[in-house]
Design goal:
Blueprint: H1 9-14, E1 20-22, H2 31-39, E2 43-47, H3 53-66, E3 71-75, H4 82-91, E4 96-99, H5 105-113, E5 117-122, H6 125-133, E6 139-142, E7 148-149, H7 155-165, E8 170-173, H8 179-188, E9 192-195, H9 197-200, H10 209-217, E10 223-226, E11 234-237, H11 240-247, H12 250-268, H13 272-281, H14 290-307, H15 332-350
Parallel strand pairs: 1-2, 1-9, 2-3, 3-4, 4-5, 5-6, 6-8, 8-9
Antiparallel strand pairs: 7-11, 10-11
Helix pairs in contact: 2-3, 3-4, 6-7, 8-15, 12-14, 13-14
C-alpha cells in the first residue's frame, strides 16, 4: 500500500516525503528509531546530548548504514563541545541540525555555509523571531503540552503567534499524535507536526517494554509538570520518585543529585567543571540555586535510569500529555502510514470529497 503524502515547505526543505518529525529525545532517539522513522518517510532526529562526540559519529554512521533517507541531529547550542559536534555533523553529511536552545548567529552561519538545514526548537514568539533573523531555515514550536522541558503557553495559542511572526517554515509540536492533529497544525499555517511521545511509543523504540507499558497505562491526569527534577518546568509522568523529589529537603535532593551526576560523569567522560558549566548554561537567565544547577547536570542520569535501564523507580519519564490518549505500539512505518492516511481522509472530508 502506498502511503498518501502531503507536500509542504518542510518536506521540500529537508527532502522527506511526509511533513512529520520525530523529535530528538535523549536516550530514546537512537539509530534504530531514527532510521526507522527516516525509512517511513518522516524526518528522524538523532539525540546527541547524551552521547560523547565519538558516540555521535558512530551513531550517525549507523543511521546512514540503515537508510539513505535524510535525517537530523539534535544538539545543545550551549554545550561546551558544540563546535566539535557541529564539525561531526558537517563532516558526516547530516542533512539537518536541530537545537533545543537557540544557536548563535555564528553557529547558524557555519552550518548553512556547509549546506546543513538549521531548525531550532523554540517556546516563545520572540525566540522564533530572533533565530529567523539570524538565518534559521525553519523552527519547531513546542507548546506547553509537549514533554520534557516546556513552557506555559498552549500550542493552539503559541503556534499561530509564531506563524504570523516569521516567514520561514514552522513545525508544530506539543500535543500531536495522529492525522487530525497534523491537519490542525496545517490549518494554523504550520508546515508539519513534530511528535516525541508518539514515536517513543512504537515498536522501533528501544525504550524497555516495561517502561512503555507505564506510558500506555497513563491517563492524561498522570502527566504532570514539575520543577523538582532540575528547577525548570519539566513535563513527565507522575511517579513515586517524582513525588519524593518534590517532598525532599534541599540536603537530600543535593546528595541524590551529586550521586547521579557522578554516574553521568563516568558514562559521558565529562569533567566535573564541564558538567557544572553545562548545568549553569541551563539557567537561561533564571535564578537557580547551586543545588538546582547540580540537579540540571544530573537530569540525564534520571532519564537514563528509565529509558535505558528500565528502572522507573529510580528514573523519570519525560512525557507529553498525549501519553494519556496513546494506546498501542505500532512500528514507525505503521504509525506514519496511519497518520498520513487519516490526514488525507480528514482533508478530503473537509473539502467535501
Amino acid at each position: 500500500m502506498t502511503t498518501p503524502s502531503l507536500e509542504t515547505s518542510l518536506t521540500k526543505l529537508v527532502g522527506v516525503r511526509h511533513p512529520l518529525v520525530q523529535t530528538g529525545m535523549g536516550w530514546v532517539a537512537g539509530p534504530r528509531l531514527v532510521s526507522a522513522t527516516a525509512e517511513a518517510g518522516a524526518l528522524g532526529i538523532l539525540a546527541s546530548a547524551t552521547m560523547s562526540p565519538e558516540q555521535l559519529r558512530s551513531a550517525v554512521r549507523e543511521v546512514k548504514s540503515r537508510t539513505e533517507a535524510p535525517f537530523g541531529v539534535n544538539l545543545r547550542a550551549d554545550a561546551g563541545d558544540a563546535d566539535e559536534r557541529v564539525r561531526i555533523i558537517v563532516e558526516e553529511g547530516v542533512r539537518v541540525a536541530s537545537f533545543a536552545l537557540a544557536p548563535s548567529r555564528e553557529l547558524i552561519a557555519r552550518l548553512k555555509d556547509a549546506g546543513v538545514v538549521v531548525i531550532p526548537s523554540i517556546g516563545a514568539r520572540r525566540h522564533a523571531e530572533k533565530v529567523a533573523a539570524w538565518g534559521a531555515d525553519a523552527v519547531v514550536v513546542q507548546g506547553g503540552e509537549g514533554g520534557g522541558h516546556t513552557g506555559e503557553v498552549a500550542t493552539t495559542v503559541l503556534l499561530p503567534q509564531v506563524v504570523d511572526a516569521v516567514d520561514i517554515p514552522v513545525v508544530a509540536a506539543g500535543g500531536f499524535f495522529d492525522g487530525r492533529g497534523l491537519v490542525a497544525a496545517l490549518a494554523y499555517g504550520a508546515a508539519g507536526a513534530a511528535m516525541g511521545t508518539r514515536f517513543l511509543l512504537t515498536s522501533d523504540s528501544t525504550v524497555p517494554e516495561a517502561v512503555k507499558a507505564k506510558y500506555l497505562a497513563a491517563q492524561v491526569k498522570d502527566v504532570t509538570v514539575t520543577r523538582a527534577v532540575d528547577g525548570l518546568p519539566h513535563r513527565m509522568l507522575r511517579t513515586d520518585l517524582v513525588s519524593s523529589l518534590e517532598n525532599a529537603g534541599r540536603a537530600r535532593a543535593l546528595a541524590r543529585a551529586a550521586r547521579h551526576a557522578a554516574g553521568f560523569r563516568r558514562l559521558s567522560g565529562l569533567s566535573w567543571s564541564r558538567m557544572i558549566r553545562d548545568g549553569l548554561a541551563m539557567r537561561h537567565g533564571r535564578e537557580l540555586s547551586w543545588s538546582q544547577v547540580l540537579l540540571a547536570a544530573n537530569t540525564p542520569m534520571l532519564l537514563r535510569a528509565s529509558m535505558v535501564e528500565g528502572r522507573t523507580d529510580l528514573g523519570v519519564m519525560a512525557s507529553g500529555q498525549v501519553a494519556g490518549v496513546i494506546e498501542d505500539l505500532p512500528s514507525c512505518a505503521e504509525l506514519v502510514e496511519r497518520v498520513m492516511a487519516e490526514a488525507v481522509e480528514v482533508l478530503g472530508r473537509l473539502s467535501g470529497h
